[in-house]
Amino acid sequence: MKINGVKGMNDILPAQVGRWQEIERVARDVFALHGYREVRTPVVEPYALYARGVGEATDIVNKEMYVFEDKGEEKLALRPEGTAGTVRAFIEHGAYVEGPQKWFYVGPMFRRERPQKGRYRQFHQLGVEAFGIAEPAIDVEQIAMVAELFRRLSVTASLQVNSVGDAACRPAYLEELRAWLRAHGGALCSDCRERTERNPLRVLDCKVPTCQPVLAEAPGLLERLCDGCRTHFDAVRQGLEDLGVPYRVNPRLVRGLDYYVRTAYEFTSDALGSQSAVVGGGRYDGLVETLGGPPTPGIGFGMGEERLALILEAAGRPVAENRPEVFLISADDVGRREVLRRAAALRRAGIACDLDARGGKLARQFKQAERVGARFAIVLGAAEAASGQAKLKDMATREETPVVLADLAGRLRPAAGA
């Protein structure tokens, strides 16, 4: 019986992987330039980590998270986002005693939501977290780092920023907003009415068209920021302007998780036909303390690899595939031994090569060389092994040139760097 994969959990085949590798390679380069180091955390964490850190009232924990009990009856969850687990590791291993830390991660996340283009039940994120820095300069540096990453990938995205306040000013605003939403509940969708009671800030992020006229009149948080939040937000805006990073203030930009305070930001793109978020980030100054660590400011973002890959595909950017420089073809039994020996020597010299271990007809082996995209092919048999010479065939032009087998690596190395 044929068994298909789980809905919304997709295979990434070799022909597609090159695009993902390019995204991750460029991201790693940019993150390293900014002082970020990689951390790797488990995909399974205690359920309590997300219930406390992300918030039981959020859609992620309440509706979307994969939760199960292991054989020891411990309640566990597949990670739905990267920040909480990274903070848990930061606390558990006492990294806070070493001063400010800049970490990044790459890996799969899981949410049981309706699969759609660019959004799946298993999805992949690049994320960064900076711990121990309260000053707005780290907010600016992190946002500018995303802009630089997009520049290197030739991705066009628009930056939106906002402040979601903190414990000094947000509680009073939330009560005001909740009262206003209750008074206008008849004009809101069912999701908005539900969120009014458990997470009113998320109502501002609703995309249902019939809710928009009502939400446009809702009280705004920016006018109700405390002095500390306002000063911080003004400094972030000034820093972005100093670095030439264009942005737009979006008063309705919120983060769906309980731990965010002050700076919230998103990079969006319309390359996929509709304006969609590619990066979402913000500051979470109370999260480390909430999860049992010392008071430690933090800020980070998550970037969806699926959407980035789709954007690059939509732009017609070619996939960078790993292709052999040369394909070794055996002409006879002696050649079958010779290609294995020569392939091992070439690989030790850093030359990517391939061969058809089945041997067989030359035509079939040349066809396989074409399939794998080899730049050159070379036929080896008893005659070539005895003479130490062969002909190197350019697979694009079909031109053949003599080559001394002892010099083959040196002959191919300049081509490999071309």
Descriptive overview:
The model has no long low-confidence stretch (mean pLDDT 91). This protein folds into two domains: 250 residues, 2-Layer Sandwich (BirA Bifunctional Protein, domain 2), CATH 3.30.930.10; 91 residues, Anticodon-binding domain (Rossmann fold, 3-Layer(aba) Sandwich), CATH 3.40.50.800. The chain contains 16 helices and 16 strands. Strands 1-5-6-11-10-9-7-8 form an eight-stranded mixed β-sheet. Strands 13-12-14-15-16 form a five-stranded mixed β-sheet, with helices on both faces. Helix 1 packs antiparallel against helix 5 and helix 5 runs parallel beside helix 10. By secondary structure, it is an alpha+beta fold.
Structural class: alpha+beta
Low-confidence residue ranges: none
CATH topology of the largest domain: BirA Bifunctional Protein, domain 2
Q: Which word captures the global form?
A: elongated
How is the largest sheet built, in terms of strand order?
1-5-6-11-10-9-7-8
Distance between the termini: 48 Å
* Count of discrete structural domains: 2
Please report the first level of CATH classification, the CATH class of the largest domain. Answer: Alpha Beta
* Percent range for β-strand residues: 15-25%
Largest sheet: 8 strands, mixed
Question: How many DSSP H or I helices?
Answer: 16
State the helical fraction: 25-40%
CATH superfamily of the largest domain: Bira Bifunctional Protein, Domain 2
The CATH architecture assignment of the largest domain turns out to be 2-Layer Sandwich
Number of strands: 16
Query: Radius of gyration in whole Å, from Cα?
Result: 27 Å
| Average residue-wise pLDDT | 91
